[in-house]
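Minutes, structural biology subgroup

Action item carried over from last meeting: produce the structure token record for Molybdopterin oxidoreductase family protein (Lysobacter hankyongensis). EB confirmed the sequence was re-checked against the source entry. Recorded below for completeness.
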Amino acid sequence: MSAPPHEPRLNLSPSPGDEVKHTTCYMCACRCGLKVWIKDGQIRYLQGNPDHPVNKGVLCAKGSAGIMQHYSPARLRKPLLRTGERGSGEFREIEWDEALALATSWLKPIRERNPDELAFFTGRDQSQALTGWWAQQFGTVNYAAHGGFCSVNMAAGGLYSIGGSFWEFGEPDWEHTRYLMLWGVAEDHDSNPIKLGLGKLKARGAKIVAVNPVRTGYGAIADEWIGIRPGTDGLFAFALIHELLRSDRIDLDYLVRYANAHWLVIRNPGGADDGLFARDEAGRPLCWNRGPHPNLPPHAGEGDKPPPPRAGEGWGGGSLTDANATDIHPAVVGECTLPDGRIAVPVFQLLAERYLDPQYAPDAVSERCGIPADTIRRIARELAQAAFDSDFSLPIAWTDSWGRKHNEMVGRPVAMHAMRGISAHSNGFHTCRALHVLQMLLGAIDAPGSFRYQPPFPKPVPPANRPGKARRDNGTLDAAPLGFVQGPEDLVVDAQGQPRRIDHAFSWSYPLSAHGMLHTVIRNAWAGDPYRIDTLLMFMANMSWNSAMNTRETMHWLTDRDGSGDYRIPHIIYSDAYASEMVAYADLVLPDTTYLERHDAISLLDRPISDADGASDAIRHPVFDPATQHDGDGRPRDVRGFQSVLLDLGARLGLPGMTDENGAPKYRDYADYMVTHERAPGVGLLAGWRGADGDEHGKGAPNPDQLRRYIEHGGFWHAPIPESARYYKMANRDYLQWAHRFGFIATTDPIPLQLYSETLQKFRLAAQGHGALQPPEEHRERVATYFDPLPMWYEPFESAQNAGADHPLSAITQRPMFMYHAWGSQNAWLRQIATRNVLYLHPDTGARFGIADEDWVEVSSHHGTITVQAKFAGNVQPDTVWTWNAIGKRRGAWKLAKNAPEGEQGFLLNHLISDITPRGDYANADPVTGQAAWFDLRVAIRRADTAGMSAPQFVPLPFDATRDAPLRYGAAMRAKDHA
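Output recorded by EB:
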């Protein structure tokens, strides 16, 4: 007789852990609140913090998989010193004292002879408030973060138009919007708040329209998908603007109250003042005031709006008046003669003249965009109906900047959100500006139901901080290396107008490159353009692989030698937590911690986590001491947080602000810096619990007990905005006073929205031969063309310079919702979702090129060829092919198994993307901001002669591969629970 079946002993009420600690997630840009449950010194599980303002308890697959990020076999163990050829991946482990002494010996002579010989470029660090300050104290102009190939034209397009931007710095009014347009939004940034918001919209029956060549993620749940051709979003926006103007469905009252629609622009073709604003003796912009409107009593509220002036209406009597004065009835169309005889017209007239042109009519742009003209007209009607026919307002009294009382907040329940799908093009800056003009015409900037600013935005247009370029007597820069150029005088160029920065940011080639240009630094350093550097210091930027355009050549530039046999880039110092592809190209590797072993400040001085109703910041603090954590082979790890290492290096170098009067380190570590450093009196990295007693917020003296207060409060600080201050922030007296009190803005003056940019016109005038600072001859036409004060559209450079039938398809990447950058796609749990990628194409596209589902194909651009597997999908515009990015790995990297699918079948489109234009004259980037034009790629496809392995393949890196056995977690804990 057989034995009875064994019944497992199950613990039906397992303990969630011995203790719980609160910190901030690092698995994407959301920066959600985490509860880390610990049992027997190990993570039991990760849970969303329900009290946190960002995620309110929600945690996605990436966040939950943070366990496997912390226990990844790819974690570095000790500092590494190169022993073989650069790129070979051959190192020996060294101690920290030796590593820091070596780094100091390289950096100290640079600081003494020429600080610009250090190029300090960081990736997804989220600590620019420290790294930018460190570069300023070192004195190098050659500092940048990852935004130059990520979002700089999105940020600049917004900050030079409305004083805020899309991305993580603004949000739709999730509670009230009735019509949401998502432009180029994938599933990567800010995902949990967007998911929460979309759930509210779906429950309320609001309409969601997704504009994207690919329908995935958020677009998949949209009510309507607009499968647009890549790079034509600006044309679509202009067609919508055309229709709104043609049908007179715009909010002129809003444009006059809050924007510069009525400001007078001088018309003097060929003159040095052409296109500038007419101003009075005090420099204030002027308008033509037709006198008090008979239907508008003084200090009228929103409910007493006059009928708007119509196009073509005569000016009649009146006078020149300060455009920001109250109780005026300004003209928005027409022409006037100034007292000195010059001719001037309002901004709105220039806007109407441009976008009412037939070239922007729906029928004219339909074929180019791939959108039926009737669809364009319908979307325009729906936008207007949602904005103007809803009769929506909030019964909240408020006071505007001029002291006018309003008994309600009039709503415009149309919201827009945009991301990389519009920014990663060479025309992305103007496309972003076009969307902001569309929003302004609808009165849909920070009105109830529309796009909303998140503190510390809005900022003055443009923000006041200019990039540093001169060194003080102590060797520090006169300002932070990154900033916002306001005119040619702010460029970082030499007396001949040539670039002074190694990446050419803030030069005549890319003047408004507010985040710098990480994607150009390696080529320029290799070429010695404009000069040779000595040391390249990088943090968490995988520039030899998935963060490189022109990947093969980038690897060559990192290893190339000059005629004397020396490396063209003499020293490379790299810090990362994991054995990425870039580690192999370093001379010295400084191992970083995981995010559960470190201090971090998610600061309002950097990339804030605020929402539209309040200001927030947060910290990370060590849940585990890295000295107690072992690597995948059970060996102890000796790693340090990069921010603390930077401060240690700064003290060893004697950098100003990093040592005391006796030359001793001023900061014990980054945690000490977070608490005690002041950027200005009372302003530090963290805004909560300041002051000696911790009872001040926003501004106040350092509080030595500050971190404890954060930890007690779940790791975050949140200050709600008063109810009367939550909308119309650019001109809301209560908000501006609140923001000034917190140090977000320097004054309480209103912030006029800019339909027309005088900053851009200043550059155009310089290119036309006016002013003391003019571009070199080779840049004149480029600057004059692309620095248009009104948004414009032009064919993306790769299409325009590589026209014809040779490369008929667009190729783009999307970030999957379940992974984020290469360091997420090495995660054991997330790899269970996908271990490789394929090239998706529409079945009609397959038939067009003789390709069957799951065929292997050759994909070629003007730059190169790759071999990949194709897969049919109906969720893509037929003239576009696409794939998930950053899944393909170089074999040997990330301690994956030697035959891991990521290395054998996975691939990158990066191998096809040139870092320069087809013409070879400029970087493959936006000409205004230098934003990398990843999505301009044009390709041809054909069936491949080989199958089974992607190409190109490179020599595997000799990092130790992980064990072939499945990487499991928690089995021992489960066994103990069931014992």
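Discussion: The chain is about 25% helix and 15% strand.
Next step: EB to file the record with the rest of the batch.
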